[in-house]
Design a protein that fits this description.
The complex is a heterodimer of chains A (about 220) and B (about 100). By secondary structure, chain A is an all-alpha fold. Chain A has two domains: about 5-155, no CATH class; about 175-225. Helices cover about 75% and strands about 0% of the residues of chain A. Chain A contains eleven helices and no strands. The longest helix of chain B has 24 residues, at about 30-55. Chain B has one domain. Helices cover about 80% and strands about 0% of the residues of chain B. Chain B has about 100 residues and is mostly helical. Classes of the chains: A mainly alpha (about 220), B mainly alpha (about 100).
């Protein structure tokens, strides 16, 4: 295995482990909400976006109309528009077909790890692709496993495992910030998204805070190298 | 049947959102202000992902394990300059606090 791929697994294993745990939880939840194995697995293959899959299951369980399910997924995943925009320069040299694949494996976790590596001058598109593919495998296998064992399992999210993804994102930001302006933007983004979520606007919390916080770059002094 | 329509539609909406910025072509170079905004964007998005997960984990407001775990992770990663150390420190702190509380 080459260095770029090894980096993806050496630093990414806590997120992969958590993804497997959350994926199992999703399989259990979806099965207990009355979905069939094929539908649950199909959802993970076709949508491949954790939060919106949980919301879709909840909406379907409550008999929501098809357009409502689609609109919810669109709004929840709109943040990926920002992520793809930020990754665009890194992927620009890749072929059209490769970009089709890189977009399919674009998740919060793959984005955060990829940016973390770029910011520290390590890793390449290969690291992102290997990590994104490993996440895809973990999520899809765990989903099926959860759906199959759903009648024999209680809440599998135990102890602190589910916190590994948040802790990874925090650590990536802490290692990536350069100067006070970066720190200020990170604090504004985290504070604003927390405030939005607490006030009930969870669906737009990440995209709202993520899109507005960078505007601080125009009023704060430029970071000195 | 309508479940598969919902799955297909949600999947298509998600994929197009992820794909559009990667395949659209620009007619001219982006203005300096746009470039500056885009430079600040990645950190803002990753930080924004953490806010709700810290104060509203699994949809329930908390002042307990998660905020403390976040501080522990940040302190350790700034001290050790090592990603895994920060992640494991945060997870262990949250696990211990959940057992204790």
């Amino acid at each position: 295995m080459n260095a770029a791929a090894r980096l993806a697994l050496v630093e990414g294993w806590p997120i992969l482990l958590t993804t497997a745990v959350v994926g199992t939880t999703f399989g259990v939840t979806a099965r207990q909400s009355g979905l069939e194995l094929t539908e649950i697995s199909g959802m993970s293959l076709v949508i491949f976006a954790g939060a919106s899959q949980f919301v879709a299951v909840e909406l379907l369980r409550n008999g929501a109309a098809v357009p409502a399910v689609i609109l919810a997924a669109f709004l929840i995943n709109l943040r990926h528009l920002l992520m793809a925009t930020a990754l665009r320069p890194r992927f620009a040299a890749r072929s059209f077909a490769e970009r089709l694949g890189l977009a399919y494996i674009l998740t919060d976790e793959a984005f955060a790890m990829g940016v973390g590596w770029y910011r520290r001058g390590r890793g390449t598109v290969t690291s992102y692709a290997v990590f994104g593919t490993a996440l895809w495998l973990a999520w899809n296998l765990a989903t099926v496993a959860g759906a199959l064992v759903s009648d024999r399992i209680a809440e599998p999210r135990r102890l602190g495992v589910d916190f590994a993804i948040t802790a990874s994102f925090l650590s990536i930001v802490a290692l990536a910030v350069r100067g006070r302006t970066d720190v200020a933007i990170a604090l504004i983004a985290a504070g604003a998204s927390a405030a939005l979520a607490l006030s009930g606007a969870s669906v737009v919390a990440v995209i709202g805070a993520g899109a507005l916080a960078p505007l601080a770059t125009f009023v704060l002094p430029r970071a000195r190298p | 049947m309508s479940i598969w329509l919902a799955i297909g539609g949600a999947g298509l909406a998600t994929y197009l959102v992820r794909l559009a910025p990667l395949v659209m072509t620009l007619r001219r170079p982006a203005p300096a202000a746009v470039t500056r905004y885009l430079d600040a964007l990645p950190i803002a998005i990753i930080a924004a992902l953490t806010g709700p997960a810290i104060v509203l984990p699994n949809g329930v407001p908390t002042m307990g394990p998660e905020p403390v775990g976040a501080i522990v992770a940040l302190v350790i990663v700034r001290w050790r300059r090592n990603l895994l150390a920060g992640v494991l420190g945060g997870v262990v702190a949250v696990a211990l606090l959940r057992l204790a509380l």
